[in-house]
Design brief:
By secondary structure, this protein is an alpha+beta fold. 26% of the residues lie in helices and 23% in strands.
Length: 725
């Protein structure tokens, strides 16, 4: 195929033909709205719904006193299915500001919203703690409270002793704020009962978790629940499990005997979905005088909720970024009065890279080495933690190619030495990033018809990343059929089991299953293993009008039981350590910033990003993923921070007017390149993850560029004007 495919669903999206979760409008649809708590911690003493019930069109008001049908689905990271273990409306306890305390259902969304605003509650408030330094927080050693082997600390060699004897040392503390994903599509569910069978249309990254979680909450057989999520308007981690609103919609629909749609408004999404938790990082690096790393110590405090322990996993990446012989990573959890935090694009790797790669830049200056040269000098082909080889590692190629494309050789070393004619300070910065290469068991079913159509059902979710396009491109490359003859079905629990799509394992899991199904199709049609296929002729030769095949794939070293876990709705993730190798994707970002000479406004003016993600399965969508990751990194470094209220709890800037994200004027020219070397070990197609590694390292590259422009080290995100004045 000479040209890569454009997005196969692009036309339908821009024409409005794609159906997202909340687009479902069945006959008799009723609409829900949530009333939420206005205290940060305590309990509801009394709730008055009389004014709400008097609003014309209101059909139902659910409060904790009506919550007998509700149960917890359990926390997804503790063997459950929900983004947190707490299910609102089951009792009078208030764990955080913004927690739902009532659901109003009416004939129209306007009546439901009006009535929800009229719900009145009296509270018994308790002292609250909403940030890492607040009085009343509880600090826990993660290794002591989370089962052994689950995101463990890393301890290789004797890092403390090696650091103490190193002639060059860096010791810095970095603070990263809570942040919210803010996908374009709001959280929403449409729940419909047909007799005793429940169908839910919802934008999710984990239709299985929604299906099995609802069955648990409602006390019904999982076979009576179907979840459809063919498209999601952005996921980014905060749709990775069952949301608290979904069961409320299902209960209301069952009570009313009519479908119910519940759309969570933007302001409530800041409190009723997971978020990137606040974290604090102390990084210590020890090196020889010529910049050879001898030791690294990475200690992290991370926010979690009172009711769940959201595990930290920062040191998994930083311990593998370079060939450091002595590494100690230690992680602590800080219990605060918030909803349970969760995964947000490059969830731990983005903050970890900010801290670690800024420290690496400090080390480069302390040793007088060029920041690119220092990174190259500390490259490795062997995982320093496990001792196994990397399945593939082309970080050096990313750094060298990026430096050449960026023109890094023209950089002067001295901070503040590069200026424009009007006095604008110019800074050039670089940072590396990595993200674990994981995979999950996947089932793919493929059907070929004598009209030339190929239908693919596979475990996976389309969140805008382009998984449909990658699947179609895989089929087109293999069979030589036209792209418009391929139909792809993802996110439907009635088709094939749907594992969580996250962690950049979507492509590396779905495509190998599709590849194996294509090979099975060829065997069933008695065709050669490669080459273009005439499906009509092949089917006619065996006297069939159609044929259906199925393939089940597992990650390297995964036992057959992994497929059973998938079918039971449980997570079954393998990697980055596999039996004979360790797998990561890698990236290098080169950034130019310009700092205005009077008010010191920072503008990112140019970015070059080079990625090692194995074979590039879909060039068009891959480039889009990297561009989007860079833009998000700009926002995470210079704009985004969720502001907390220490008096009343909750997040203050809970809308897109005050939660600042990059706009067109903030986005520079972004050049994207790929090493495009297949990974020979991770899977048959040689693909690795891309969506999350694209963001890792953007923030430190910007911060390092700001230092190069101004001479001021930035150790707190986001970097604001007052930090550089």
């Amino acid at each position: 195929m000479s040209q890569p495919l454009a997005r196969v669903d692009a036309f339908d999206k821009v024409m409005g033909a794609v159906q997202f979760g909340a687009d479902r409008v069945p006959p008799g649809l009723a609409h829900g709205a949530l009333a939420v708590a206005t205290i940060g911690r305590g309990r509801v003493v009394r709730i008055d719904t009389s004014a709400a019930e008097a609003v014309p069109g209101v059909r139902l008001v659910l409060t904790p006193r009506d919550g007998g049908e509700l149960a917890s689905a359990g926390f997804v990271m503790a063997g459950g299915h929900g983004f947190q273990s707490l299910q609102p409306l089951t009792d009078d306890h208030v764990a955080y500001r913004g927690q739902p305390i009532a659901l109003v259902v009416a004939d129209t969304p306007h009546a439901a919203a009006e009535a929800a605003a009229l719900v009145q509650a009296e509270y018994e408030a308790e002292p609250l703690s909403v940030d890492l330094d607040a009085d009343g927080v509880e600090v826990l050693d993660q290794a002591a409270v989370i089962p052994a082997g689950f995101f463990p600390d890393v301890d290789v060699g004797d890092a403390d002793a090696a650091f103490a004897r190193s002639p060059v040392r860096v010791d810095s503390v970095f603070d990263c704020p809570p942040q919210h994903a803010c996908p374009m599509e709001l959280m929403a569910a449409v729940a419909e009962w047909n007799g005793d069978t429940l169908t839910v249309h919802e934008a999710t990254q984990n239709a299985n978790a929604v299906r099995f979680g609802l069955a648990t909450q409602l006390g019904i057989d999982v076979e009576r629940v179907r979840v459809l999520s063919p498209y999601a308007g952005g996921g980014f981690g905060n749709r990775n499990s069952l949301q608290a609103h979904t069961c409320l919609a299902a209960v209301a629909a069952r009570r009313l005997g009519r479908p119910v749609k519940l759309v969570v408004p933007r302001s409530q999404m800041f409190h009723d979905a997971s978020f990137r938790p606040a974290s604090r990082h102390r990084v210590r690096l020890g090196a020889t005088v010529d910049g050879r790393l001898q030791a690294a110590i990475h200690e992290v405090d991370q926010q979690t909720s009172r009711h769940d322990l959201f595990p930290a996993n920062y040191v998994e990446m930083t311990s593998r970024l370079y060939g450091i012989p002595n590494f100690r990573g230690h992680q602590r959890l800080v219990r605060t009065d918030v909803q349970t935090p969760g995964y947000m694009r490059a969830p731990h790797e983005h903050p970890a890279a900010f801290a670690f790669e800024c420290a690496i830049d400090e080390l480069a200056y302390a040793t007088g080495r060029d920041p690119v040269d220092l990174r190259l000098a500390n490259d490795t082909g062997t995982d320093p933690v496990s001792g196994r080889p990397f399945s593939s590692r082309h970080l050096a190629a990313c750094l060298r190619r990026g430096a050449e494309r960026f023109g890094w050789a023209n950089r002067t070393l001295e901070p503040g030495s590069m200026r424009l004619a009007d006095g604008t300070l110019v800074g050039w910065g670089v940072a590396a990033g990595a993200y674990p290469g994981s995979a999950v068991p996947t089932v793919a079913r493929l059907r070929a018809d004598d009209d030339g159509t190929v239908s693919v059902q596979v475990g996976g979710h389309e969140m805008g990343q382009g998984i449909r396009t990658a699947i179609v491109e895989t089929v087109v490359r293999d069979l030589g059929v036209a792209a418009d003859s391929v139909r792809v079905d993802v996110g439907d629990t009635a088709a094939v089991p749907q594992h969580l799509t996250a962690g950049s394992w979507g492509t590396a899991s779905a495509l190998p299953a599709v590849h194996d199904a294509l090979q099975e199709l060829r065997r069933s049609l008695d065709l050669p293993p490669t080459g273009a296929v005439d499906l009509r002729a092949a089917l006619a030769a065996i006297g069939r009008a159609d044929i259906e095949v199925q393939a089940e794939t597992r990650a390297p070293g995964q036992p057959p039981e992994a497929i059973d876990r998938l079918r039971r709705g449980a997570m079954a993730i393998a990697g980055p350590e596999f039996p004979t190798f360790t797998a990561f994707s890698f990236v290098a970002h080169f950034v130019e910033v310009r700092v205005e000479p009077t008010i010191h406004r920072i503008h990112v003016s140019r970015v070059v990003s080079v990625v090692d993600c194995g074979r590039v399965a879909s060039p068009v969508t891959a480039a889009s993923q990297v561009g989007g990751g860079v833009i998000w990194g700009i926002g995470a470094c210079l704009r985004e921070g969720s502001e907390v209220d220490p008096r009343y709890g909750g997040f203050l800037n809970a809308d897109l007017a005050e939660y600042l994200i990059p706009v067109n004027a903030d986005v520079p020219r972004i050049e994207v390149d790929f090493v495009d070397e297949p990974d020979p070990h991770l899977n048959a197609l040689g693909v690795k993850g891309l969506g999350e590694v694209a963001m890792v390292g953007v923030a430190p590259a910007i911060a390092n560029a700001v230092f190069h422009a101004t001479g001021q080290r930035q150790r707190r995100l986001p970097i604001r004007l007052e930090n550089v004045l």
